[in-house]
Specification:
401 residues; Urease, subunit C, domain 1; 2 domains; eight-stranded mixed beta sheet; 13 helices; 23% strand; Peptidase M38; Metal_Hydrolase; hydrolase activity, acting on carbon-nitrogen (but not peptide) bonds; Amidohydro-rel; OTAase-like
Length: 401
């Protein structure tokens, strides 16, 4: 299968410059770029008449199995029912231009394999399996009166409880055994968990370092859920590669990000959506009241990190019926960042975090042929990729979806 795009404005997101020319895709990859390219027999040719072409978008923090904001309820659902919802959610992500996503707990090798084999329509799926949580941590969804922890591997929950160095080593090894591309750890309290405080730290330093050591031994890395500067800084000191959320970081955090060459993955849109719609999609009243603790701080944290030179990736973390707001993250970030920097976070920046530089998030020859054709300039208006009227074509592996 070959596709030739003629008369396009091709964006190099690294330099922020357009080049006028053609781009040809073959066998799922970008085969060549230039002017007056030849179309081999059987090639589909589209004259774009000056439309912009950018790399396919990357969302580095999703939960494709989260059909509800009541995350604790997922563990009681049939895995086949959850999978059916995940297929619908993934299809919507692809329609919005996201050709690769990193699932940060919930998805497994089955969903990733199904997408790769064409059984599920959606973005390329990188996954961590189940996130690691201490007792009473962000993935321990038991109410105060519940005692039994059901961590059966076939359950559809997003986390598993493990306490102590030996137990977290075994849990990390188990997720890596199943093909996890990274390990997720809950290093602070969160909004959706019923018994912890957002300002708590979770896991001892010995436990965090043990998890990082297991990931590094497998040539993988650790992503840590963390909000406060205290929790973020502990995770960075332990060697975590990416901090998810980070709404309450301080200047010390920025210094540690740079020192450890780590990434921040803000997820601004989820707090906006949870405040507006969370209760309608299953968020408990107690969790809804927690949202205010992190809602206003998110933009401040992003601005501090960007100003301080922290490496950034694009993430959304949406749940339930709120997945439809995924692209609104572009508009929120544009309040404190240039449009080019927002787009970089969703392309080459996220690709670097995922260890796929040169493979995705770029229009370089040899990269996966994942790209968007836009009516409108995303360097002038960060909201262009977020508006369906500007999204003329989504191309995945060289095929128009």
């Amino acid at each position: 299968m070959s596709l030739l795009l003629r008369n396009a404005m091709l964006l190099d997101v690294a330099t922020g410059e357009y080049t006028e020319g053609d781009l040809r895709c073959a066998d799922g990859r970008i085969a060549e770029t230039g002017t007056n390219l030849r179309a081999p027999d059987g090639t589909r040719v589209l004259d774009l008449a000056g439309a912009r072409v950018v790399p396919g978008l990357i969302d580095a923090h999703v939960h494709v199995t989260a059909s509800t904001a009541d995350l604790g309820a997922l563990r009681t659902m049939s895995p086949s029912y959850v999978t059916a919802h995940a297929a619908r959610i993934m299809g919507g992500m692809l329609d919005r231009g996201f050709t690769t996503v990193r699932d940060n707990s919930g998805a497994d090798f089955g969903l990733a394999d199904a997408q790769a084999e064409g059984l599920v329509r959606g973005p390329r799926l990188l996954f961590c399996g189940k996130g690691l949580s201490q007792t009473g941590g962000h993935s321990d969804f038991r109410g105060r009166g519940e005692q039994h922890v059901d961590d059966h591997p076939c359950c559809a929950g997003i986390g598993r409880v493990a306490d102590g160095v030996d137990a977290v080593r075994a849990a990390a090894r188990d997720e890596l055994r199943k093909g996890a591309t990274h390990v997720k750890v809950m290093a602070s309290g969160g909004v959706a968990s019923p018994t912890d405080r957002i300002d708590s730290t979770q896991y001892s330093m010995d436990e965090l370092r043990a998890i990082v050591a297991e990931a590094e031994a497998a040539n993988r890395y650790v992503a840590a859920h963390a909000y406060t500067a205290r929790a973020v800084n502990r995770a960075l000191e332990a060697g975590v590669r990416s901090i998810e959320h980070g709404n309450l970081i301080d200047d010390t955090s920025v210094e540690l990000f740079r020192r450890h060459d780590a990434f921040l993955v803000p997820t601004l849109v989820t707090y906006w959506a949870l405040k507006e719609e969370g209760r309608a999609f299953g968020l408990s009243e107690g969790s809804w009241r927690k949202v205010d603790e992190v809602l206003e701080a998110g933009l401040t944290a992003l601005e501090r990190a960007a100003r301080g030179g922290v490496r950034l990736a694009f993430g959304t973390d949406l749940l339930g019926g709120m997945h439809r707001h995924q692209s609104h993250e572009f508009r929120l970030r544009a309040e404190v960042q240039r449009p080019l920097d927002v787009l970089r976070a969703a392309t080459c920046g996220a690709a670097e975090l995922l260890g796929m530089t040169g493979e995705i998030g770029t229009l370089e020859v040899g990269a996966h042929a994942d790209l968007l054709v836009l009516d409108g300039d995303p360097l002038e208006d960060a909201g262009v990729p977020a508006d369906p009227k500007h999204l003329r074509h989504v191309v995945q592996a060289g095929i128009i979806t």
